[in-house]
From TrEMBL:
Belongs to the class-III pyridoxal-phosphate-dependent aminotransferase family. NCBIfam families: PRK07036.1. This is Aminotransferase. One of its GO terms (molecular function) is transaminase activity. It comes from the Bacteria. InterPro entries: Aminotrans_3, Aminotrans_3_PPA_site, PyrdxlP-dep_Trfase, PyrdxlP-dep_Trfase_major, PyrdxlP-dep_Trfase_small. PANTHER family: AMINOTRANSFERASE, AMINOTRANSFERASE CLASS-III. Keywords: Aminotransferase, Pyridoxal phosphate, Transferase.
Length: 469
């Protein structure tokens, strides 16, 4: 099979397609008070840093699909790798001592790229599933050690770990779980690490001390014998691209180790180049997690895939049958799916060959500097993040950091103004998130910031006209 490139132009009945979508597709994270009337913008084509809607309008992709299209859109060689694998063997089970070549190659490659002690890989179908499966494995691990009381997981307020039942319970964004049930008996949430909103006049070092002390106090209250793991994103993503104080992650890990609590790094967003390295935990944050979870950039979104990277120490227990004839009875039909693994292998090859991590380390600081020029706008309270993972926090008052009322929909307004000018960014309440493909160059950054400058100016004028400022 041959993948044609460029893809021949397609024609759509835009109205009919919009109606089908509105009538039948239950969209995730969608405001249905708006959706029932307006439906969705249909994206139909993509190429490089651009996407195109059903009407032929072209936009710079400022969110990499959803934190994930790291190598950019329309990579024919990834499509070809998937097609070649699909025609050779699209699928076969990985249960009961069966495997496939792409899964074996990818597991080996991930072990090579990860910190040296993480040599074992459990495949899933995405980030939520990876986090969910991880907790099941962690509980199993302590059961096997004869410590069945070690069940509680420590997470953080405003953490995002997914929407499957366990992953949603780990997630600490309150609005994500409105009217949904969660497994509260298994999860305790600590304070998020949020430098922008730390107590007034508190130094970064003192703030770090406070957060570490909270962890120690929580362990003392619950009992280390009842706590299995602490899970954390190196930089909190959907919760606001929240930056922790210097040294926070390493100190939190040290406390966990002292109490036989596993340290889980959720690198679903930060992995595969977003911060300039394949994995950020060790290279950027000086930690050696017991487990790293990844997805998104693992395949650059070309196929659903998640992975849990497990330490040698844990695998020594997980890889020993619990009884004669016993099996590790957890997994998914699509664990190690050969087409998804083939996509990931080609994706990693591109990242290495084109030195995309190096591009992020070179262009990322420039993007940060240019975005910070937007702080001149009246509503821009904070511009934060690192490299290709950034957020702008909109406020009513810079001095007090007071937020605009929810009904002002400031993040939506900014995103709409940017989209009218040819740029898609992500609104999350009062925030706007920028997490682009990792192939942006300086010229693209300049174009994007010019668009955002106009978008914030227009938004400020509209907010004032509507009485919000």
């Amino acid at each position: 099979m041959t993948i044609e490139t460029p893809t021949p132009p397609r024609t759509f009945d835009a109205q009919a397609l919009w109606q089908k979508d509105k009538d039948h597709f239950i969209h995730p994270f969608t405001d249905y008070s708006v959706f029932h009337d307006k439906g969705c913008d249909l994206i139909t084509d993509s190429d490089g840093i651009y996407v195109e809607d059903v009407h032929g309008n072209r936009f710079i992709d400022g969110i990499a699909g959803l934190w994930c299209v790291n190598v950019g859109h329309g990579r024919a060689e990834i499509g070809q790798a998937m097609a070649d694998q699909a025609t050779r063997m699209a699928y076969f089970s990985t249960f009961n001592n069966l495997s496939n070549a792409p899964a074996a190659e990818l597991a080996s490659k991930l072990a090579e790229l990860a910190p040296a002690h993480l040599n074992h890989v459990f495949f899933s179908c995405g980030g939520s599933a990876a986090n969910d499966a991880t907790i099941r494995l962690v509980h199993y691990y302590f059961n096997r050690l004869g410590k069945p009381n070690k069940k509680r997981i420590l997470s953080r307020n405003n953490a995002y770990h997914g929407t499957t039942y366990m992953a949603a319970s780990l997630t600490g964004i309150a609005s994500n779980n409105w009217a949904f049930d969660t497994l509260d008996h298994l999860v305790t949430h600590l304070s998020e690490a949020n430098l922008y909103r730390r107590p007034a006049r508190m130094s970064e070092a003192d703030y770090c001390d406070q957060l570490v002390a909270e962890l120690e106090d929580t362990i003392a209250e619950i009992g280390a014998e009842n706590i299995a793991a602490f899970i954390a994103e190196p930089i909190m993503g959907a919760g606001g691209v929240l930056m922790a104080p210097q040294g926070y992650h390493a100190r939190m890990q040290a406390v966990c180790r002292a109490n036989e609590i596993l340290f889980i790094a959720d690198e679903v967003v930060t992995g595969f180049g977003r911060l300039g390295h394949f994995f950020a935990s060790e290279a950027v944050f000086d930690t050696q997690p017991d487990i790293i979870n990844c997805a998104k950039g693992l395949s650059s979104g070309y196929a659903p895939l998640g992975a849990t990277l497990i330490s040698d120490k844990l695998f020594e227990v997980l890889g020993t049958p619990q009884r004669k004839g016993g099996v590790l009875s957890t997994g998914f039909t699509y664990s190690g799916h050969p087409v998804s693994c083939a996509a990931a292998l080609k994706n990693i090859e591109i990242i290495e060959r084109e030195r995309i991590c190096e591009n992020v380390r070179e262009v990322g600081p420039y993007l940060e500097r240019k975005l910070k020029t937007l702080a001149d706008h009246e509503t821009v309270g904070d511009v934060r993040g690192s490299h290709f993972m950034l957020a702008i926090e909109n406020v009513a008052d810079k001095a007090t950091k007071e937020l605009l009322p929810v009904e002002a929909r400031v993040g939506d307004r900014v995103a709409a103004e940017a989209q009218q000018r040819g740029l898609i960014i992500r609104p999350v309440g009062h925030l706007n998130i920028i997490s682009p493909p990792l192939i942006w160059d300086r010229d693209t950054v300049d174009r994007v910031v010019a668009i955002l400058d106009e978008a914030f100016a227009a938004t400020t004028a509209c907010l004032r006209a509507d009485g919000y400022l």
